[in-house]
Write a structure and sequence with these properties.
about 150 residues, mainly alpha, extended
Length: about 150
């Protein structure tokens, strides 16, 4: 009886580990398959659901998101084109890139503050902080796994 139980436990253990994982499309591939206007539309509609934007706010936020998505798409293509150049960036180049990124974020935040109501802006800030915290958790989980 003991042998049968041990064999059964081993068999169940092996069959559980042999299950295939479901394939998924990585976010990177999804973003590459969409153009900037599609990405901006999806992002704006998500904001509309979360913040209950009216039509005028929707249009203004859509224009902001189109500009951001176009910038990121161009940046991604530039980075892909220069991926062969594996020279490390200098400290001043990293500083300039981080400074430019933060300036864009500040400008985007100010523009959103002008478009959204106070309640919507407060909710947007809270959601942004939650996404940031969740991203850090996910990053740490991946980092600790490998």
């Amino acid at each position: 009886m003991k042998k049968v139980l041990v064999i059964l436990i081993v068999f169940v253990g092996f069959s559980a580990m042999a299950q295939k994982k479901r394939p998924h499309q990585p976010r990177k591939q999804l973003l590459e398959s969409l153009d900037a206007e599609q990405i901006a539309t999806l992002r704006t509609k998500k904001m509309t659901l979360a913040l209950d934007l009216n039509q005028e706010q929707f249009e203004e936020v859509l224009q902001l998101n189109i500009a951001e998505a176009t910038f990121h798409k161009e940046k991604r293509e530039t980075r892909k084109a220069t991926a062969d150049d594996s020279k490390p960036s200098t400290a001043s180049e990293r500083f300039n890139m981080a400074n430019a990124r933060l300036n864009r974020q500040i400008a985007m935040q100010q523009q959103l503050k002008d478009i959204l109501t106070d309640d919507q802006y407060t909710l947007w800030k809270e959601l942004k902080l939650q996404r940031h915290a969740n991203g850090k958790k996910r990053f740490n989980v991946r980092r600790n796994r490998g």
